[in-house]
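Researcher: Re-running this chain for the archive, since the previous output was lost when a drive failed. Same request as before.
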Amino acid sequence: MARNKFDVDETLESPFSFAHLKRAFKYIKRHKWQMIAAFALSALASVAGLFGPKIMQWVLDDAVPNQDYGLLGRMAVLFIGLTLVSIAFTTIRSRIMAHVSQDIIYDIREDLFAHLQKLPFSYYDSRPAGKILVRVINYVNSVADMLSNGIINMVLEIVNIVFIVVFMFSTDVTLSWIIIGGLPVFVAIILILKPRQRKAWQRQSNKNSNYNAYLAESIDGVRVSQLFTRQEENIGIMRRLAEACRQAWLKAIYINNSVWVCSEVLTQIVFTVMYIAGVYWMGGAFVSFGVIMAMGNYVSRFWQPITNLANIYNNFINNIAYLERIFETMDEPVVVDDLPGAPDLPEIRGKVTFRDVTFAYEPGINILEHLNFTVEAGQSIALVGPTGAGKTTVVNLISRFYNLSGGAVIVDDKYDISRVTLHSLRTQMGIMLQDSFIFSGTIMDNIRYGRLDATDDEVMEAAKAVRAHDFICEMERGYYTEVNERGSRLSQGQKQLIAFARTLLSDPKILILDEATSSIDTKTERLLQEGIQALLKGRTSLIIAHRLSTIKNCDRILYIGNKSILEEGSHDELLAKHGLYHALYTAQAQDQGVPAPAAN
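Model: Regenerated C-alpha coordinates:
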Protein backbone atom coordinates (compact mmCIF):
# COMPACT_ATOMS: atom_id res chain seq x y z
CA MET A 1 0.00 0.00 0.00
CA ALA A 2 1.42 3.37 -1.02
CA ARG A 3 2.68 5.50 1.82
CA ASN A 4 2.22 8.59 -0.28
CA LYS A 5 -0.27 9.21 -3.10
CA PHE A 6 -0.42 11.94 -5.72
CA ASP A 7 -2.99 13.88 -3.70
CA VAL A 8 -1.09 13.70 -0.38
CA ASP A 9 1.45 16.42 0.36
CA GLU A 10 4.96 15.35 1.25
CA THR A 11 6.08 16.71 4.59
CA LEU A 12 8.98 19.02 3.87
CA GLU A 13 8.99 20.88 7.18
CA SER A 14 12.41 20.62 8.78
CA PRO A 15 14.56 22.94 10.86
CA PHE A 16 17.66 24.45 9.30
CA SER A 17 20.29 21.77 9.77
CA PHE A 18 23.93 22.42 9.02
CA ALA A 19 24.42 18.65 9.11
CA HIS A 20 22.72 18.37 5.70
CA LEU A 21 24.79 21.25 4.38
CA LYS A 22 27.99 19.75 5.75
CA ARG A 23 27.20 16.45 4.08
CA ALA A 24 26.57 18.23 0.79
CA PHE A 25 30.00 19.85 0.91
CA LYS A 26 31.55 16.70 -0.53
CA TYR A 27 30.04 17.76 -3.87
CA ILE A 28 31.43 21.29 -3.48
CA LYS A 29 34.95 20.14 -2.60
CA ARG A 30 35.30 18.51 -6.02
CA HIS A 31 35.04 21.98 -7.61
CA LYS A 32 36.59 24.20 -4.94
CA TRP A 33 39.25 25.75 -7.20
CA GLN A 34 36.74 26.71 -9.86
CA MET A 35 34.50 28.20 -7.18
CA ILE A 36 37.41 30.14 -5.63
CA ALA A 37 38.29 31.52 -9.07
CA ALA A 38 34.66 32.45 -9.68
CA PHE A 39 34.44 34.20 -6.32
CA ALA A 40 37.65 36.16 -6.98
CA LEU A 41 36.36 37.30 -10.37
CA SER A 42 33.01 38.30 -8.85
CA ALA A 43 34.71 40.28 -6.09
CA LEU A 44 36.94 42.12 -8.58
CA ALA A 45 33.93 42.85 -10.80
CA SER A 46 32.04 44.21 -7.79
CA VAL A 47 34.91 46.45 -6.70
CA ALA A 48 35.30 47.72 -10.26
CA GLY A 49 31.62 48.62 -10.33
CA LEU A 50 31.79 50.45 -6.99
CA PHE A 51 34.23 52.97 -8.43
CA GLY A 52 31.45 54.35 -10.64
CA PRO A 53 29.91 56.66 -7.98
CA LYS A 54 33.39 57.85 -6.93
CA ILE A 55 34.18 58.74 -10.53
CA MET A 56 30.89 60.62 -10.72
CA GLN A 57 31.82 62.52 -7.53
CA TRP A 58 35.23 63.50 -8.96
CA VAL A 59 33.64 64.66 -12.20
CA LEU A 60 30.96 66.79 -10.47
CA ASP A 61 33.22 68.24 -7.78
CA ASP A 62 36.45 68.73 -9.71
CA ALA A 63 36.31 68.27 -13.48
CA VAL A 64 33.07 70.18 -14.21
CA PRO A 65 33.54 73.18 -11.85
CA ASN A 66 37.18 73.63 -12.94
CA GLN A 67 36.41 72.90 -16.61
CA ASP A 68 39.23 70.35 -16.52
CA TYR A 69 38.55 68.51 -19.76
CA GLY A 70 41.67 66.39 -19.42
CA LEU A 71 40.43 65.08 -16.07
CA LEU A 72 36.97 64.60 -17.55
CA GLY A 73 38.42 62.54 -20.40
CA ARG A 74 40.53 60.43 -18.05
CA MET A 75 37.50 59.80 -15.87
CA ALA A 76 35.47 58.77 -18.91
CA VAL A 77 38.16 56.33 -20.03
CA LEU A 78 38.50 54.99 -16.48
CA PHE A 79 34.73 54.54 -16.18
CA ILE A 80 34.49 52.69 -19.52
CA GLY A 81 37.51 50.55 -18.67
CA LEU A 82 36.15 49.57 -15.24
CA THR A 83 32.75 48.80 -16.77
CA LEU A 84 34.32 46.53 -19.39
CA VAL A 85 36.44 44.82 -16.72
CA SER A 86 33.33 44.28 -14.59
CA ILE A 87 31.40 42.83 -17.56
CA ALA A 88 34.30 40.57 -18.59
CA PHE A 89 34.87 39.22 -15.08
CA THR A 90 31.14 38.67 -14.56
CA THR A 91 30.85 36.81 -17.88
CA ILE A 92 33.81 34.54 -17.13
CA ARG A 93 32.46 33.88 -13.64
CA SER A 94 29.03 32.98 -15.07
CA ARG A 95 30.58 30.47 -17.47
CA ILE A 96 32.66 28.87 -14.73
CA MET A 97 29.65 28.53 -12.41
CA ALA A 98 27.46 27.17 -15.20
CA HIS A 99 29.93 24.28 -15.58
CA VAL A 100 30.24 23.82 -11.80
CA SER A 101 26.46 23.81 -11.34
CA GLN A 102 25.97 21.19 -14.06
CA ASP A 103 28.81 19.06 -12.65
CA ILE A 104 27.19 19.13 -9.20
CA ILE A 105 23.83 18.19 -10.72
CA TYR A 106 25.53 15.29 -12.52
CA ASP A 107 27.32 14.09 -9.37
CA ILE A 108 24.26 14.18 -7.11
CA ARG A 109 21.98 12.66 -9.72
CA GLU A 110 24.49 9.90 -10.45
CA ASP A 111 24.72 8.98 -6.76
CA LEU A 112 20.95 9.15 -6.34
CA PHE A 113 20.21 7.07 -9.43
CA ALA A 114 22.86 4.48 -8.53
CA HIS A 115 21.22 4.05 -5.13
CA LEU A 116 17.73 3.82 -6.66
CA GLN A 117 18.99 0.93 -8.80
CA LYS A 118 19.80 -1.02 -5.62
CA LEU A 119 16.58 -0.40 -3.71
CA PRO A 120 14.22 -3.38 -3.38
CA PHE A 121 10.79 -3.76 -4.95
CA SER A 122 9.20 -2.83 -1.62
CA TYR A 123 10.52 0.75 -1.94
CA TYR A 124 8.80 1.25 -5.30
CA ASP A 125 5.67 -0.55 -4.12
CA SER A 126 5.12 2.21 -1.54
CA ARG A 127 5.74 5.41 -3.56
CA PRO A 128 4.34 7.06 -6.68
CA ALA A 129 6.97 7.13 -9.43
CA GLY A 130 6.26 10.84 -10.05
CA LYS A 131 7.36 11.81 -6.55
CA ILE A 132 10.59 9.88 -6.95
CA LEU A 133 11.21 11.73 -10.22
CA VAL A 134 10.68 15.09 -8.48
CA ARG A 135 13.53 14.29 -6.12
CA VAL A 136 15.86 13.18 -8.89
CA ILE A 137 15.09 16.13 -11.18
CA ASN A 138 13.50 19.18 -9.51
CA TYR A 139 15.07 18.91 -6.07
CA VAL A 140 18.53 18.12 -7.45
CA ASN A 141 18.39 21.08 -9.84
CA SER A 142 17.41 23.45 -7.04
CA VAL A 143 19.95 22.10 -4.56
CA ALA A 144 22.80 22.16 -7.11
CA ASP A 145 22.15 25.83 -7.81
CA MET A 146 22.23 26.55 -4.08
CA LEU A 147 25.48 24.64 -3.58
CA SER A 148 27.19 26.42 -6.45
CA ASN A 149 25.81 29.90 -7.10
CA GLY A 150 24.00 30.19 -3.76
CA ILE A 151 27.10 29.83 -1.58
CA ILE A 152 29.24 32.08 -3.77
CA ASN A 153 26.50 34.71 -3.96
CA MET A 154 26.04 34.65 -0.20
CA VAL A 155 29.76 35.25 0.47
CA LEU A 156 29.94 37.74 -2.36
CA GLU A 157 26.99 39.79 -1.07
CA ILE A 158 28.60 39.94 2.37
CA VAL A 159 31.85 41.12 0.77
CA ASN A 160 29.87 43.61 -1.33
CA ILE A 161 28.30 45.07 1.78
CA VAL A 162 31.74 45.46 3.36
CA PHE A 163 33.14 47.14 0.24
CA ILE A 164 30.10 49.42 -0.10
CA VAL A 165 30.34 50.48 3.56
CA VAL A 166 34.05 51.25 3.08
CA PHE A 167 33.32 53.32 -0.04
CA MET A 168 30.43 55.11 1.70
CA PHE A 169 32.40 56.05 4.81
CA SER A 170 35.32 57.15 2.66
CA THR A 171 32.90 59.49 0.89
CA ASP A 172 30.94 60.89 3.87
CA VAL A 173 30.66 59.51 7.40
CA THR A 174 27.49 61.35 8.51
CA LEU A 175 25.41 60.44 5.45
CA SER A 176 26.68 56.84 5.75
CA TRP A 177 25.22 56.56 9.24
CA ILE A 178 21.87 57.81 7.92
CA ILE A 179 21.88 55.10 5.22
CA ILE A 180 22.76 52.37 7.71
CA GLY A 181 20.16 53.64 10.16
CA GLY A 182 17.33 51.92 8.24
CA LEU A 183 18.94 48.49 8.59
CA PRO A 184 17.31 47.51 11.94
CA VAL A 185 13.87 48.23 10.48
CA PHE A 186 14.57 46.02 7.45
CA VAL A 187 15.88 43.20 9.65
CA ALA A 188 12.66 43.34 11.69
CA ILE A 189 10.58 43.11 8.50
CA ILE A 190 12.63 40.12 7.30
CA LEU A 191 12.20 38.31 10.62
CA ILE A 192 8.42 38.76 10.36
CA LEU A 193 8.06 37.74 6.70
CA LYS A 194 10.68 35.02 6.30
CA PRO A 195 8.86 32.21 8.20
CA ARG A 196 5.74 32.81 6.12
CA GLN A 197 7.81 33.00 2.95
CA ARG A 198 9.52 29.68 3.67
CA LYS A 199 6.24 27.88 4.39
CA ALA A 200 4.68 29.34 1.25
CA TRP A 201 7.48 28.05 -1.00
CA GLN A 202 7.43 24.65 0.67
CA ARG A 203 3.69 24.41 0.09
CA GLN A 204 4.24 25.35 -3.55
CA SER A 205 6.86 22.60 -3.82
CA ASN A 206 4.44 20.07 -2.32
CA LYS A 207 1.71 20.97 -4.79
CA ASN A 208 4.15 20.78 -7.69
CA SER A 209 5.25 17.33 -6.49
CA ASN A 210 1.61 16.17 -6.42
CA TYR A 211 1.09 17.52 -9.93
CA ASN A 212 4.13 15.67 -11.27
CA ALA A 213 3.09 12.43 -9.56
CA TYR A 214 -0.37 12.51 -11.13
CA LEU A 215 1.03 13.51 -14.52
CA ALA A 216 3.41 10.52 -14.52
CA GLU A 217 0.59 8.18 -13.48
CA SER A 218 -1.77 9.55 -16.14
CA ILE A 219 0.76 9.20 -18.95
CA ASP A 220 1.58 5.65 -17.89
CA GLY A 221 -2.10 4.70 -17.75
CA VAL A 222 -3.37 6.70 -20.74
CA ARG A 223 -4.62 3.59 -22.59
CA VAL A 224 -6.75 2.50 -19.64
CA SER A 225 -8.07 6.05 -19.25
CA GLN A 226 -9.16 6.17 -22.88
CA LEU A 227 -10.62 2.67 -22.70
CA PHE A 228 -12.89 3.70 -19.82
CA THR A 229 -13.47 7.21 -21.25
CA ARG A 230 -12.01 8.78 -18.13
CA GLN A 231 -10.63 11.81 -19.95
CA GLU A 232 -13.04 14.36 -18.48
CA GLU A 233 -12.60 13.07 -14.92
CA ASN A 234 -8.82 13.02 -15.32
CA ILE A 235 -8.83 16.56 -16.71
CA GLY A 236 -10.88 17.60 -13.70
CA ILE A 237 -8.33 16.09 -11.30
CA MET A 238 -5.47 17.71 -13.22
CA ARG A 239 -7.24 21.06 -13.09
CA ARG A 240 -7.60 20.80 -9.32
CA LEU A 241 -3.94 19.92 -8.92
CA ALA A 242 -2.88 22.65 -11.37
CA GLU A 243 -5.06 25.19 -9.57
CA ALA A 244 -3.50 24.18 -6.25
CA CYS A 245 -0.06 24.74 -7.84
CA ARG A 246 -1.14 28.12 -9.17
CA GLN A 247 -2.62 29.30 -5.89
CA ALA A 248 0.41 28.12 -3.91
CA TRP A 249 2.78 29.84 -6.35
CA LEU A 250 0.80 33.10 -6.31
CA LYS A 251 0.79 33.16 -2.51
CA ALA A 252 4.53 32.49 -2.39
CA ILE A 253 5.18 35.23 -4.96
CA TYR A 254 2.91 37.62 -3.04
CA ILE A 255 4.93 37.15 0.12
CA ASN A 256 8.19 37.20 -1.83
CA ASN A 257 7.24 40.49 -3.45
CA SER A 258 6.30 41.89 -0.05
CA VAL A 259 9.97 41.62 0.92
CA TRP A 260 10.96 43.39 -2.27
CA VAL A 261 8.34 46.12 -1.80
CA CYS A 262 9.44 46.69 1.80
CA SER A 263 13.03 46.89 0.65
CA GLU A 264 12.20 49.38 -2.10
CA VAL A 265 10.05 51.55 0.16
CA LEU A 266 12.72 51.58 2.85
CA THR A 267 15.37 52.37 0.25
CA GLN A 268 13.36 55.35 -0.99
CA ILE A 269 12.74 56.60 2.57
CA VAL A 270 16.45 56.40 3.39
CA PHE A 271 17.24 57.93 0.00
CA THR A 272 14.90 60.87 0.72
CA VAL A 273 16.18 61.42 4.24
CA MET A 274 19.76 61.31 2.99
CA TYR A 275 19.02 63.87 0.26
CA ILE A 276 17.18 66.20 2.65
CA ALA A 277 20.05 65.97 5.13
CA GLY A 278 22.60 66.39 2.35
CA VAL A 279 20.90 69.46 0.91
CA TYR A 280 20.51 70.96 4.39
CA TRP A 281 24.18 70.38 5.17
CA MET A 282 25.23 71.47 1.71
CA GLY A 283 23.75 74.86 2.48
CA GLY A 284 26.23 75.00 5.30
CA ALA A 285 28.97 73.73 2.96
CA PHE A 286 29.39 70.46 4.87
CA VAL A 287 29.01 68.32 1.75
CA SER A 288 29.35 68.90 -1.96
CA PHE A 289 26.86 68.14 -4.72
CA GLY A 290 29.11 65.36 -6.02
CA VAL A 291 29.14 63.72 -2.57
CA ILE A 292 25.33 63.79 -2.43
CA MET A 293 25.07 62.21 -5.89
CA ALA A 294 27.64 59.53 -5.03
CA MET A 295 25.96 58.71 -1.73
CA GLY A 296 22.58 58.55 -3.47
CA ASN A 297 24.03 55.91 -5.77
CA TYR A 298 25.44 53.99 -2.83
CA VAL A 299 22.02 53.90 -1.12
CA SER A 300 20.55 51.46 -3.65
CA ARG A 301 23.84 49.56 -3.86
CA PHE A 302 23.84 49.10 -0.08
CA TRP A 303 20.26 47.80 0.19
CA GLN A 304 20.37 45.52 -2.85
CA PRO A 305 22.87 42.97 -1.40
CA ILE A 306 20.97 42.99 1.90
CA THR A 307 17.77 42.11 0.06
CA ASN A 308 19.68 39.49 -1.91
CA LEU A 309 21.04 37.98 1.31
CA ALA A 310 17.51 37.71 2.68
CA ASN A 311 16.42 35.86 -0.47
CA ILE A 312 19.53 33.64 -0.42
CA TYR A 313 18.81 32.75 3.20
CA ASN A 314 15.25 31.82 2.30
CA ASN A 315 16.55 29.74 -0.61
CA PHE A 316 18.92 27.97 1.77
CA ILE A 317 16.07 27.15 4.14
CA ASN A 318 13.96 25.69 1.32
CA ASN A 319 16.83 23.73 -0.18
CA ILE A 320 17.84 22.26 3.16
CA ALA A 321 14.41 20.59 3.10
CA TYR A 322 15.13 19.35 -0.44
CA LEU A 323 18.55 18.12 0.65
CA GLU A 324 16.86 16.21 3.44
CA ARG A 325 14.61 14.46 0.90
CA ILE A 326 17.54 13.69 -1.41
CA PHE A 327 19.62 12.28 1.43
CA GLU A 328 16.56 10.48 2.78
CA THR A 329 16.40 8.63 -0.54
CA MET A 330 20.15 8.00 -0.55
CA ASP A 331 19.88 6.69 3.03
CA GLU A 332 16.95 4.43 2.26
CA PRO A 333 18.27 1.06 3.43
CA VAL A 334 19.08 -1.46 0.74
CA VAL A 335 17.42 -4.23 2.72
CA VAL A 336 17.96 -6.75 -0.07
CA ASP A 337 21.73 -6.58 -0.33
CA ASP A 338 24.87 -8.64 -0.08
CA LEU A 339 26.00 -9.51 3.43
CA PRO A 340 29.49 -8.23 4.31
CA GLY A 341 32.00 -10.62 2.77
CA ALA A 342 29.30 -12.65 1.01
CA PRO A 343 30.84 -15.13 -1.45
CA ASP A 344 29.78 -15.56 -5.06
CA LEU A 345 27.45 -18.42 -5.79
CA PRO A 346 29.43 -20.94 -7.85
CA GLU A 347 27.93 -22.55 -10.91
CA ILE A 348 24.90 -24.47 -9.70
CA ARG A 349 22.97 -27.55 -10.77
CA GLY A 350 19.66 -25.88 -9.93
CA LYS A 351 18.10 -27.74 -7.02
CA VAL A 352 15.89 -25.39 -4.97
CA THR A 353 14.58 -26.07 -1.46
CA PHE A 354 12.12 -23.98 0.57
CA ARG A 355 12.68 -24.68 4.26
CA ASP A 356 9.97 -23.45 6.61
CA VAL A 357 9.59 -20.21 4.64
CA THR A 358 7.37 -17.47 6.03
CA PHE A 359 6.91 -14.14 4.27
CA ALA A 360 4.91 -10.92 4.69
CA TYR A 361 4.87 -7.76 2.58
CA GLU A 362 3.54 -5.86 5.60
CA PRO A 363 4.44 -6.79 9.18
CA GLY A 364 1.91 -9.12 10.76
CA ILE A 365 0.12 -10.03 7.50
CA ASN A 366 1.75 -13.24 6.27
CA ILE A 367 1.35 -14.27 2.65
CA LEU A 368 3.17 -17.56 3.15
CA GLU A 369 3.64 -19.55 6.37
CA HIS A 370 6.00 -22.48 7.01
CA LEU A 371 6.24 -23.33 3.32
CA ASN A 372 8.29 -26.45 2.51
CA PHE A 373 9.00 -27.99 -0.89
CA THR A 374 11.92 -29.08 -3.05
CA VAL A 375 12.52 -28.77 -6.77
CA GLU A 376 15.16 -31.18 -8.00
CA ALA A 377 17.73 -29.97 -10.52
CA GLY A 378 16.24 -30.14 -14.01
CA GLN A 379 12.66 -30.57 -12.76
CA SER A 380 9.79 -28.43 -14.02
CA ILE A 381 7.35 -27.30 -11.34
CA ALA A 382 4.04 -25.53 -11.93
CA LEU A 383 2.44 -23.28 -9.34
CA VAL A 384 -1.34 -22.94 -9.47
CA GLY A 385 -3.99 -21.61 -7.17
CA PRO A 386 -6.41 -18.72 -6.69
CA THR A 387 -5.42 -15.11 -7.31
CA GLY A 388 -3.51 -13.66 -4.37
CA ALA A 389 -2.50 -17.05 -2.99
CA GLY A 390 1.21 -16.23 -3.25
CA LYS A 391 2.36 -17.91 -6.49
CA THR A 392 4.27 -14.86 -7.75
CA THR A 393 5.56 -14.29 -4.24
CA VAL A 394 7.19 -17.74 -4.32
CA VAL A 395 9.16 -16.99 -7.50
CA ASN A 396 10.02 -13.50 -6.23
CA LEU A 397 11.57 -15.09 -3.15
CA ILE A 398 13.66 -17.48 -5.24
CA SER A 399 14.94 -14.43 -7.11
CA ARG A 400 15.49 -12.73 -3.76
CA PHE A 401 13.57 -9.61 -4.67
CA TYR A 402 12.41 -9.56 -1.04
CA ASN A 403 13.90 -10.80 2.22
CA LEU A 404 12.22 -13.68 4.00
CA SER A 405 10.36 -13.15 7.26
CA GLY A 406 11.47 -16.62 8.35
CA GLY A 407 13.03 -19.81 7.06
CA ALA A 408 15.46 -20.14 4.17
CA VAL A 409 15.70 -20.84 0.44
CA ILE A 410 18.56 -23.25 -0.28
CA VAL A 411 20.19 -23.99 -3.63
CA ASP A 412 21.93 -27.31 -4.28
CA ASP A 413 21.44 -28.33 -0.62
CA LYS A 414 24.22 -26.03 0.64
CA TYR A 415 23.85 -22.43 -0.55
CA ASP A 416 21.48 -20.15 1.35
CA ILE A 417 20.57 -17.52 -1.25
CA SER A 418 20.54 -14.80 1.42
CA ARG A 419 24.24 -15.40 2.07
CA VAL A 420 25.61 -15.19 -1.48
CA THR A 421 25.97 -12.16 -3.73
CA LEU A 422 22.88 -11.07 -5.61
CA HIS A 423 24.79 -10.71 -8.86
CA SER A 424 26.07 -14.28 -8.79
CA LEU A 425 22.58 -15.56 -7.92
CA ARG A 426 20.59 -13.65 -10.53
CA THR A 427 23.06 -14.19 -13.36
CA GLN A 428 22.23 -17.91 -13.10
CA MET A 429 18.51 -17.29 -13.23
CA GLY A 430 16.21 -16.43 -16.10
CA ILE A 431 13.15 -14.56 -14.93
CA MET A 432 10.16 -13.53 -16.99
CA LEU A 433 7.64 -11.58 -14.96
CA GLN A 434 4.01 -10.83 -15.79
CA ASP A 435 4.90 -7.32 -16.96
CA SER A 436 6.81 -7.77 -20.22
CA PHE A 437 8.67 -4.48 -20.02
CA ILE A 438 10.17 -3.31 -23.29
CA PHE A 439 12.75 -0.52 -23.26
CA SER A 440 13.08 2.17 -25.91
CA GLY A 441 15.68 1.13 -28.49
CA THR A 442 16.03 -1.67 -31.03
CA ILE A 443 14.54 -5.13 -30.73
CA MET A 444 18.10 -6.48 -30.83
CA ASP A 445 19.06 -4.35 -27.81
CA ASN A 446 15.96 -5.46 -25.90
CA ILE A 447 16.68 -9.15 -26.37
CA ARG A 448 20.36 -8.63 -25.54
CA TYR A 449 19.51 -6.55 -22.43
CA GLY A 450 20.43 -9.26 -19.90
CA ARG A 451 23.49 -10.54 -21.76
CA LEU A 452 25.41 -7.76 -23.45
CA ASP A 453 28.13 -10.03 -24.83
CA ALA A 454 25.68 -12.13 -26.89
CA THR A 455 26.30 -12.14 -30.63
CA ASP A 456 23.65 -11.25 -33.18
CA ASP A 457 23.39 -14.91 -34.16
CA GLU A 458 22.76 -15.93 -30.54
CA VAL A 459 20.05 -13.27 -30.26
CA MET A 460 18.38 -14.57 -33.39
CA GLU A 461 18.61 -18.19 -32.20
CA ALA A 462 16.84 -17.24 -28.95
CA ALA A 463 14.14 -15.43 -30.95
CA LYS A 464 13.68 -18.43 -33.22
CA ALA A 465 13.35 -20.74 -30.23
CA VAL A 466 10.43 -18.74 -28.86
CA ARG A 467 8.88 -18.23 -32.32
CA ALA A 468 9.55 -14.46 -32.36
CA HIS A 469 11.89 -14.50 -35.38
CA ASP A 470 9.21 -14.44 -38.07
CA PHE A 471 7.30 -11.38 -36.87
CA ILE A 472 10.57 -9.53 -36.14
CA CYS A 473 11.79 -10.12 -39.71
CA GLU A 474 8.51 -8.71 -41.04
CA MET A 475 9.17 -5.34 -39.37
CA GLU A 476 10.72 -2.52 -41.42
CA ARG A 477 14.27 -2.98 -40.11
CA GLY A 478 14.01 -6.45 -38.65
CA TYR A 479 15.99 -6.82 -35.43
CA TYR A 480 17.16 -3.22 -35.70
CA THR A 481 13.64 -1.80 -35.69
CA GLU A 482 13.31 0.94 -33.08
CA VAL A 483 10.51 0.35 -30.56
CA ASN A 484 8.99 3.01 -28.36
CA GLU A 485 9.10 3.22 -24.58
CA ARG A 486 7.22 0.27 -23.05
CA GLY A 487 6.96 -1.23 -26.57
CA SER A 488 3.84 0.67 -27.58
CA ARG A 489 4.37 -0.28 -31.25
CA LEU A 490 4.15 -3.96 -30.36
CA SER A 491 1.20 -6.14 -29.44
CA GLN A 492 1.10 -7.68 -25.99
CA GLY A 493 1.89 -11.06 -27.50
CA GLN A 494 4.87 -9.69 -29.42
CA LYS A 495 6.20 -8.01 -26.29
CA GLN A 496 5.95 -11.27 -24.38
CA LEU A 497 7.79 -13.16 -27.09
CA ILE A 498 10.62 -10.62 -27.07
CA ALA A 499 10.78 -10.78 -23.28
CA PHE A 500 10.83 -14.57 -23.52
CA ALA A 501 13.76 -14.44 -25.95
CA ARG A 502 15.57 -12.04 -23.59
CA THR A 503 15.10 -14.45 -20.70
CA LEU A 504 16.18 -17.55 -22.64
CA LEU A 505 19.25 -15.83 -24.11
CA SER A 506 20.77 -15.60 -20.63
CA ASP A 507 21.01 -19.44 -20.64
CA PRO A 508 19.90 -19.76 -16.99
CA LYS A 509 20.25 -22.72 -14.64
CA ILE A 510 16.93 -21.82 -13.04
CA LEU A 511 14.12 -20.59 -15.30
CA ILE A 512 11.14 -18.74 -13.86
CA LEU A 513 8.10 -18.05 -16.04
CA ASP A 514 5.37 -15.99 -14.41
CA GLU A 515 2.36 -15.92 -16.76
CA ALA A 516 4.84 -16.04 -19.63
CA THR A 517 2.24 -16.88 -22.26
CA SER A 518 -0.78 -15.00 -20.93
CA SER A 519 -0.95 -12.58 -23.92
CA ILE A 520 -0.05 -15.05 -26.66
CA ASP A 521 -2.71 -16.55 -28.92
CA THR A 522 -3.36 -20.28 -28.72
CA LYS A 523 -1.73 -21.08 -32.08
CA THR A 524 1.48 -19.21 -31.24
CA GLU A 525 1.47 -20.72 -27.76
CA ARG A 526 1.45 -24.23 -29.21
CA LEU A 527 4.49 -23.35 -31.32
CA LEU A 528 6.14 -21.69 -28.34
CA GLN A 529 5.66 -24.78 -26.21
CA GLU A 530 7.85 -26.73 -28.63
CA GLY A 531 10.71 -24.33 -28.04
CA ILE A 532 10.07 -24.19 -24.30
CA GLN A 533 10.19 -27.97 -23.88
CA ALA A 534 13.58 -28.15 -25.58
CA LEU A 535 14.94 -25.30 -23.48
CA LEU A 536 13.60 -26.69 -20.20
CA LYS A 537 15.78 -29.76 -20.52
CA GLY A 538 18.60 -29.64 -18.00
CA ARG A 539 17.15 -26.56 -16.28
CA THR A 540 15.17 -26.21 -13.10
CA SER A 541 11.99 -24.38 -14.02
CA LEU A 542 9.11 -22.89 -12.07
CA ILE A 543 6.08 -21.96 -14.11
CA ILE A 544 2.99 -19.97 -13.18
CA ALA A 545 0.17 -20.14 -15.72
CA HIS A 546 -3.57 -19.59 -15.57
CA ARG A 547 -4.02 -21.72 -18.67
CA LEU A 548 -3.74 -25.08 -16.98
CA SER A 549 -3.44 -26.82 -20.35
CA THR A 550 0.07 -25.35 -20.68
CA ILE A 551 1.41 -27.03 -17.54
CA LYS A 552 0.13 -30.57 -17.95
CA ASN A 553 3.60 -31.80 -18.89
CA CYS A 554 5.32 -30.38 -15.81
CA ASP A 555 6.96 -32.92 -13.52
CA ARG A 556 4.99 -31.68 -10.52
CA ILE A 557 2.21 -29.22 -9.84
CA LEU A 558 1.88 -27.38 -6.53
CA TYR A 559 -1.52 -25.97 -5.58
CA ILE A 560 -0.85 -22.87 -3.44
CA GLY A 561 -3.55 -21.69 -1.07
CA ASN A 562 -4.14 -20.68 2.53
CA LYS A 563 -0.47 -19.56 2.83
CA SER A 564 0.94 -23.02 2.04
CA ILE A 565 0.84 -25.99 -0.35
CA LEU A 566 -2.58 -27.65 -0.27
CA GLU A 567 -2.01 -30.24 -3.02
CA GLU A 568 1.02 -31.61 -4.79
CA GLY A 569 1.58 -34.13 -7.60
CA SER A 570 1.58 -34.63 -11.35
CA HIS A 571 -1.32 -33.51 -13.52
CA ASP A 572 -2.81 -37.01 -13.64
CA GLU A 573 -2.27 -37.64 -9.92
CA LEU A 574 -4.03 -34.43 -8.95
CA LEU A 575 -6.96 -35.08 -11.25
CA ALA A 576 -7.31 -38.53 -9.73
CA LYS A 577 -7.61 -36.99 -6.25
CA HIS A 578 -10.71 -35.01 -7.28
CA GLY A 579 -9.58 -32.21 -5.02
CA LEU A 580 -8.82 -28.52 -5.45
CA TYR A 581 -6.77 -28.90 -8.64
CA HIS A 582 -9.44 -31.12 -10.19
CA ALA A 583 -12.11 -28.50 -9.42
CA LEU A 584 -9.95 -25.71 -10.87
CA TYR A 585 -9.11 -27.66 -14.01
CA THR A 586 -12.71 -28.80 -14.48
CA ALA A 587 -14.05 -25.26 -14.14
CA GLN A 588 -11.55 -23.97 -16.72
CA ALA A 589 -12.36 -26.79 -19.13
CA GLN A 590 -16.10 -26.04 -18.87
CA ASP A 591 -15.45 -22.34 -19.49
CA GLN A 592 -13.62 -23.32 -22.68
CA GLY A 593 -16.46 -25.61 -23.75
CA VAL A 594 -14.47 -28.84 -23.69
CA PRO A 595 -15.40 -32.12 -22.00
CA ALA A 596 -14.63 -32.47 -18.30
CA PRO A 597 -11.16 -33.93 -17.79
CA ALA A 598 -10.50 -37.40 -16.62
CA ALA A 599 -7.34 -38.90 -15.17
CA ASN A 600 -5.32 -41.13 -17.48
